[in-house]
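Q: C-alpha cells for this one, please.
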Amino acid sequence: MLKLRSLRALAALTLLIWPIRASSLQLGLEVTPGKLEVSIPRGMTYNIPITIHNSGLNSTHVQATMVDFTVNQAGSYVFTKVGSRPNSLMKWASIRPREFNIQPNTSQQVQLTIQVPSNHALSGEYAGIVFFQTRPERKPGQTVAFSERIASKIYETIPNTVHIGGAVVRMASYANPLGRIYHVLFQNTGNAHVYIRGQLIVQTTSGKIVDRVAIPSNQLVERGGMRLLELQGKRLPPGEYEAIATIDYNGKTDTAGGIKFTVR
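A: Here is the predicted structure, written as C-alpha cells:
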C-alpha cells in the first residue's frame, strides 16, 4: 500500500520558472522558459509570457501550436491534439500572437493565457506543450527543406490538491546472453508527474545479495502513466532467487516489488 507525500498548502497563486532554455541548433531559435510550473486556483485567469529569440543570421517566420502530451512506457514523448487527454491544460489556453516574423538577433514575446474553470472537481496537475515551428526553408544547393521546432512545456496545478503516489505493479525476469534481464513496471498512482530512481537487488533464499543493479535517475512518469524499466543483471549460477526492486518517486515512502525465479 502506498503512502502519499503531504504538500504544503499554497496560500496564493505561485509561479515557478526553471532557468531552462530550449534551443534550436540549426536555425538559432531559443525559447524561454523551456519548462514552467504554475499553480492557479479554480476560476482564475493567468497570463504567461514566453520569449522566442532568433540568434541566427536570417529572419524567419514562426507559428505557435498547442498540444497535449504524455510519455509512454519506453520513455518517449507522445503528442496528441488539445483536449484528447484527461489532464489537458491547453483546452483552457489561448496564445497570441500565433504567428510572427522574427528578425536576426531579436526576440518576440507571446502571451499564453490560461483560464481555469470554476469547477470543484478539478484537482492535481494539468499539462501541455506549446511548439514554435519555423516555415520550411531550402538553402542553395539543398534538395530538402528544413523546418525547426522548439517547445515550452507547461504544468499547472490546482492548489492544495496535489498528491504524489506510485507503485511497482509487475515484474519479470528471464535469461539473456549477458546474464539476466529484469523488467519492472512502475505506475504513477498520484495526480502529478514524478521522476523516479532506485535499485534492484537479487538475493538467494537465505537472503544473501548476489547482484545489485541501479535504476537510472530522473526518469519521467506523467500523471496516469507507467514506465517499463529494463535492467541488465549478471549471470547467476543455478539456484532459487528473489529480485526486489525499490523505487524512489519522491513520495513519503518508497515503493517496492519482488519476484521469485529459478535459474536452471
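A few notes: Residues 14-157 form a domain with the Immunoglobulin-like fold (CATH 2.60.40.10). The CA atoms of residues 42 and 141 lie 54 Å apart.
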